[in-house]
Design brief:
Elements lengths: L1 H26 L16 H20 L2 H11 L3 H7 L1 E3 L1 H5 L9 H9 L4 E4 L7 H17 L7 E4 L1 E3 L2 E2 H6 L7 H7 L2 H16 L5 E2 L24 H17 L3 E7 L15 E2 L3 H6 L2 H9 L4 E4 L3 E2 L11 H11 L5 E4 L5 H4 L4 H11 L4 E2 L4 H14 L4 H17 L5
Parallel strand pairs: 1-2, 1-12, 2-3, 3-6, 6-7, 7-9, 8-10, 9-11
Antiparallel strand pairs: 4-5
Length: 416
């Protein structure tokens, strides 16, 4: 009996030694002998985890659309500077330095060589006639395609209908009543037709983004910023109208921008002029204000524009600079993965409290993809560049935003 036990001792020692070696190689594969598998033994838990992980990885890869794959290829060839400029949606005057831009010539071409911005937004002052507008936009787009980063532009305009109708007011396209009038009827087909007509009208000049529809629920009758621009005070009706206008716009080739997240209808003061606040709780927002945004997101709205109002129950800073509003609520909870853009960064709610550069960095840190109307392109660019250099922003974070921008441009045929 003793001999049998003695014989087992060296066998057990070998088993223990082998197990130790396997464990060491498993956690230190870089020191394994040549030809040794990186993992020799897996526990049941590791095997189960591996089996679950592989299909998830395959599913994640399979979920990449052709546009996303192409966007990754384009992104890999871009410099950091080109990426940062793509995150700016600017006025033509900011780009060229002229007092009032009504044509696109050498100044525009030279600006696009050095500052290949992602988008340009035009206002009434930029329009003189139909032919002038069409030529100006076509030339600008041609410069974007052929110089600088060679990436076409988002060409945007505020064409809501009613009181905010830059193109209709100057160029004589279809005029609409205030959205409140349509909301009072609550006709979904009418909302769809508005979107389709707006898209047809403005795309004829070269626009591909409409900063519409207004998704705010007008819950405060003293509201001075939204008013009759909203479809009304009933969240269900507003949701139906917003959903169908988004469909009409985007089915006709123009990207929609839901505004002003998370809902500006309960405020009183105007964020163009200074601080504007709502004291609505998250539950109250979910019960009312967020519903039209959810409806528009369900229709794959290309953009969500975030307001500069402060939702005091959610954060102490403007929503456009708040990770709690943008990342936690809009991205994580509501599942939106389109382009998040700020309201105009030249508005009083921002300029009265933040420098241009500081506001740009805080917005991107919060989860914003594009900065609308930065007062100074140079200030925003320098601040973002420095933030990456200092580690306040990672280039991976910048890449997330530029991927969304490029994917949208591919999806809507800008880069064909």
């Amino acid at each position: 009996m003793k001999k049998r036990y003695l014989l087992l001792i060296p066998v057990a020692a070998c088993v223990i030694a082998c197990a130790a070696a396997v464990g060491y190689v498993q956690f230190h594969p870089e020191q394994a002998p040549a030809g040794t598998p990186s993992v020799l033994v897996r526990t049941e838990q590791q095997e189960s985890a591996a089996q679950q992980e592989q299909p998830e990885q395959q599913e994640e890869q399979a979920e990449l659309t052709a546009d996303q794959k192409r966007a990754q290829e384009i992104l890999s060839d871009m410099t950091l500077g080109q990426k940062l400029y793509q995150m700016m949606f600017v006025r033509p005057e900011s780009l060229t330095g002229v007092g009032k831009a009504v044509r696109a010539g050498d100044a525009t071409r030279k600006a696009m060589e050095t500052m290949p911005v992602g988008g340009i937004i035009y206002f009434s002052q930029n329009f003189r006639s139909k032919s002038q507008t069409t030529t100006m936009l076509a030339n600008t787009q041609e410069y974007a395609r052929t110089v600088g980063a060679n990436i076409p532009l988002f060409m945007g305009v505020d064409e809501e209908g009613g009181t905010v109708a830059r193109v209709a007011d100057v160029l004589g396209t279809t005029k609409f009543d205030d959205m409140a009038d349509y909301g009072a009827r609550g006709d979904a087909q009418e909302a769809y037709d508005i979107g389709k007509t707006l898209a047809t009208d403005i795309s004829g000049f070269g626009f591909n983004v409409d900063f519409a529809p207004v998704a705010d629920v007008l819950s405060n009758e003293n509201n001075t910023e939204i008013g009759a621009r909203s479809f009304g005070s009933d969240p269900s009706t507003v949701s139906i109208m917003v959903e169908n206008e988004v469909m009409g716009l985007q089915e006709s080739g123009v990207m929609a921008a839901l505004k002003h997240f998370p809902g500006h209808g309960s405020t009183e003061t105007n964020s163009h002029e200074g601080t504007s606040e709502t004291d609505r709780t998250l539950d109250e927002l979910k019960e009312c204000d967020l519903k039209p945004f959810e409806a528009g997101i369900d229709q794959d709205a290309a953009f969500v524009l975030v307001s500069h109002m402060t939702a005091t129950e959610l954060d102490s800073v403007p929503c456009s600079l708040s990770s709690k509003v943008i990342t936690d609520l809009l991205r994580d909870e509501m599942g939106y993965d389109g382009i998040v853009i700020t309201d105009g960064m030249d508005m009083g709610a921002i300029t009265e409290h933040y420098s241009n550069g500081d506001a740009a960095v805080k917005a991107v840190q919060a989860g914003v993809d594009m900065l609308l109307c930065p007062p100074s392109i140079d200030d925003a660019y320098e601040a973002l560049s420095q933030a990456v250099a200092d580690g306040e922003l990672t280039e991976a974070r910048i890449d997330e935003s530029v991927m969304r921008i490029l994917t949208a441009k591919l999806k809507y045929g800008l880069m064909n």
